[in-house]
Amino acid sequence: MKKKLILINILIVSISLSVLLILSAIIINKLNSDDVNYRATNYLNLATSIYDGSNEEELLERITTVDENIRLTIIDTEGKVILDSSLDNIEESHLT
Asked: Is the Cβ–Cβ distance between 83 and 72 less than 8 Å?
């Protein structure tokens, strides 16, 4: 009888810990996703408030002042890369 109680307790604890681990992973993933979306929205709002269609270098300078690790790419409606903060050669098209 004592062994059966111990096994039941071990099973309950194992299931509880597994559920807790899964729920924690889901919550952490959601919080991280929300943070990434919030930051991306803020960067986009900042970029659209600065960029007027012709001041790419000013935009790049101001955005990288906020976060030097951010990659900024501006693409026109034909898919031509106008500005890419991480590439020197911007000859490739982003439509293909």
From this structure: yes
